[in-house]
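Hypothesis: this fold can be encoded by more than one sequence.
Test: take the structure tokens below, design a sequence, compare later.
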């Protein structure tokens, strides 16, 4: 059986999902038996999804009212010196 370290490295790289079935099988077997590695895999997927969403938001152009919203937010922020 693969070690947790080996499985986490495989899962983290993401290359195991495109590997041949006989290379994926030990990873799936370990994931079926180890709740820690399943949690690590879930956490990695969540981080990848959030990073993708964040990247999309940076790539998008701000809306036409961006200047107004920014100015209003800065003028009404009580933590900023006036
Ligand atoms: Zn494990």
């Amino acid at each position: 059986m693969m070690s947790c370290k080996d499985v986490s490295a495989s899962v983290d790289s993401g290359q195991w999902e495109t590997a041949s079935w006989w290379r994926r099988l030990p990873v799936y077997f370990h994931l079926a038996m180890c709740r820690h590695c399943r949690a690590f895999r879930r956490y990695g997927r969540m981080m990848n999804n959030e990073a993708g969403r964040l990247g999309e938001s940076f790539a998008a152009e701000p809306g036409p009212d961006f200047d107004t919203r920014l100015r209003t937010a800065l003028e009404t922020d009580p933590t900023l010196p006036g």
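Residues 35-59 form the longest helix (25 residues). Helices lie at 4-13, 21-33, 35-59, 66-76.
Hypothesis status: open.
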